[in-house]
Amino acid sequence: xxxxxxxxxxxxxxxxxxxxxxxxxxxxxxxxxxxxxxxxxxxxxxxxxxxxxxxxxxxxxxxxxxxxxxxxxxxxxxxxxxxxxxxxxxxxxxxxxxxxxxxxxxxxxxxxxxxxxxxxxxxxxxxxxxxxxxxxxxxxxxxxxxxxxxxxxxxxxxxxxxxxxxxxxxxxxxxxx
Length: 177
Hints:
Aminopeptidase; alpha+beta; 6 helices
């Protein structure tokens, strides 16, 4: 989704630091994306859908930028962290199950691409080796980059499954911004 015109706040850069707006297309009302500055843990129930171990979320949430997407009510969240001066990483993205498949995750990803375009050259995302999730990220413009062997078995205190697939290696994908 792109801002409606050059005069809108998103184009001028005059967006309040905690509220960011996406100007919707003709088929949907305006979707609002809010950058959450305080009390990020209030979104833990949603964050746990994408990363089911709270102490893993605690490693990146304090220093990460948390964005919440609202279309009437809360639909999706994501967390982005800096890796170095040229690279950031999408650490978590989740949409409530009943709203999945409606384009909210994709809208949030497109938003963060635009949001970080002037600050970083590359965005990474790591995920398990699940065909549907890899396909989703590739459809958003990410390309497979590298693999971290045994990431899930070494870093989580219990086996992690996506459907009937046990996650073992972390697959990293990247996208040029």
